[in-house]
Amino acid sequence: MTDAPNVYDAEPIPDAARSEIDRMLRSGDLFRYTAPEDAPVSLLEQEFAALLGSRYALGVSSCSAALFLSLKALDLPRDARVLIPGFTFAAVPSAVVHADCIPVLCEVSDNYRIDIKDFEERLESDIAAVIISHMRGHTSDMDAIMALCEARDIPVIEDAAHSLGTTWAGRNIGTLGRVGCFSFQSYKLVNAGEGGILITDDADLIARAVIMSGAYENNWCKHFKQMNGDLQKAFARWQNELPLYNMRMSNLSAAIIRPQLAEIPRRVRDGRQGHDHVAARLNRSPWLEVPEALAAEERAPDSIQFNLIGMSEADARAFTEEAAARGVKVQIFGLSTDNARAFWNWRFLPGDAPDLPQTREMLMRACDVRLPARLTRAEHDFIADALVSAAEAVMEPVRAYGT
Ligand SMILES: *Cc1c(COP(=O)(O)O)cnc(C)c1O
Asked: Which domain, by its residues, includes 52?
């Protein structure tokens, strides 16, 4: 029998990173602006923009920094209202607060996607910008969201922190809105420990973000191989006009990220196969349900989410205990203590505590299990067996333990 799989360890960093890191250790060349050109961070930006099909990219210290700089680059006034989903990671409302804006939450459905009707209603409440979190890679209806926002001229920031490799109608997630933000924290598809990147086609926006990320004096020249007329005008317009928040990426992070870009297609393919295999097995249980992806969505999952059907809160808690006894850790977003994805734990939000009954109900039965791309089929089956039999043990004790 297979041992309970370790779902927390990351994959090894490709060997190709070693010679570059060695070079840096010898030269001390860790700061992106030391070299006159072709610093690893600038090369990563060019490669990442080309990979996603965007004009510009900016490497920063985290996805949270990318979200913060995106809001600042949009030049929103203080206390601007920013619409975000009620199901996301606490870093998202935090970035909004950090940018002196006010987070406004909308309802999310039991398929983990934004409730478009509620979204449309709240869009009318003086919203200046929208952040769409493709939470755990689940993509909301981006056709509907973009149409609603474009009709009102409201800019969309995509929080694609955990969605690298996901596509919507054949287009890369992160390229649909005005800006897309990604994370290189260790639990994401590409792992540098910490790090983030934003992508955009907007010259004015990238110029503002680059300067505010800490391109003091004329260091922004080192970001680009060639500067087109739009970029030159944008930098001339914003030079010395903006605060420097210093959220730069280090060359060391870029050296760890760059050789992983070639691994993305394999990680996406294996992650999707593993996820779909486990999903098909869970869906055969009457007690477990993996919501279907939307038709336009091709996911790149490294975890699986499913809902508990017909279980009380006590049953749900018993299910996590039975699964743990079988070696699989299940987190129920709304039942695990201090979960950073449960909106009622965001007590730093200004104003009254948000009331999102539909999202709350979803969070109370939505389970989260990690499924990194490196797992084997035997490990997928181990996890599926554990989850299905844990549900049976709670809901059909006679059948599970019967003579
Ligand atoms: C991880 C994550 C973030 C934050 O990324 P950091 O790089 O850790 O700041 C934001 N949003 C979502 C959906 C995430 O999964």
From this structure: 16-262
What global pTM score does this model have? 0.97
Query: Within a domain: residue 383?
Result: yes
Q: What is the pLDDT of residues 290-332, one digit of tens each?
A: 999 999 999 999 999 999 999 999 999 999 999 999 999 999 9
Tell me if 213 CB under 6 Å of ligand 1: no
pLDDT (tens digit per residue) in 247-303? 999 999 999 999 999 999 999 999 999 999 999 999 999 999 999 999 999 999 999
* Strand order across the 102-106 sheet: 56-60, 196-200, 179-183, 156-159, 127-133, 81-85, 102-106
Residue 2 has pLDDT above 70, yes or no: no
Are residue 229 and residue 320 in the same domain, yes or no?
no
Mean pLDDT of 97-121: 98
Q: Does the beta carbon of 185 lie inside 6 Å of ligand 1?
A: yes
Burial-class residue 109 by CB neighbours within 10 Å (0-12, 13-18, 19+): middle
Give the domain-ending residue among 262, 293, 312: 262
The confidence band for 400, taking pLDDT boundaries of 50, 70 and 90, is: low
Q: What is the pLDDT of residue 3?
A: 80
Q: Rounded to an integer, what distance in angstroms lies between the CA atom of residue 185 and that of residue 179?
A: 19
Q: Are 324 and 318 in contact (CB under 8 A)?
A: no
SS3 of 107-163: CECCCCCECHHHHHHHHCCCEEEEEEECHHHCCCCHHHHHHHHHHCCCCEEEECCCC
Q: Are residues 25 and 126 in the same domain?
A: yes
Same domain, 223 and 367: no
> How remote is the CA of residue 61 from the centroid of ligand 1, in Å?
12
CA distance 103 to 119: 13
Domain contains 185: yes
**Residue 119 falls inside a structural domain:** yes
Residue 89 alpha carbon to ligand 1 centre in Å = 7
Count: domains in the chain = 2
The preferred substitution site among 68, 185, 339 for testing ligand 1, maximizing ligand atoms within 8 Å of CB, is 185
CATH code of 393's domain:
3.90.1150.10
CATH code for the domain in which residue 205 is found: 3.40.640.10
